[in-house]
């Protein structure tokens, strides 16, 4: 390949580097962060803001590396006397520079799609604004009756504004019910046992909730230092049905636990 052909190929390669895609991705990250900040004001659950921020930083780092690649092509072309390649300033606009606006994130549609996926159902939302406590009680009723269709519909219709508040109502009850079942405050070693006792009932209504997700919810509810991941819809979906599952577990008082410990010690 002669120098002119090589230079032409390198210039074409530099021109095709995906800087516009980086701009679009960054704008979408920014829009998603704005939505999550709004949700975080109304929720006790971890909604993944720090992970989204870290992803945006990695995107910036990748864009910088791409700009360095353009500089290297320019330097090489200059060294072989083939002229400069694309100007770096034009190829790698700084964050905040005008770019084509991406389609706005629709949090309600995302919520509808995600709840349908988690519950293995389909259907459009019929938006209804209800107080969080009323929604929580309706979901508890549906969970207690094993009515998966009603559970999915109520959660889907509520939307993210109300749905993200459910863990704040569910976790204190999960913690209290766990203590009543165990006869003492739960600890980390209890999570697998509680998970195994509840996971089937949870997955009967939320089939895409894996055992790991149920364990994370239990650990978070019992304040054992484990987060619930970065999926606000999944955390909200697990909360009420986990309370219903825990409510069905037998209770024992502290004396029962003491007697059982003594029996184990004798044997």
From TrEMBL:
Ranges annotated as biased composition (Basic and acidic residues): 253-267
Compositionally skewed regions (Low complexity) per UniProt: 87-103
Region (Disordered): 87-107, 248-267
Name of this chain's protein: Uncharacterized protein
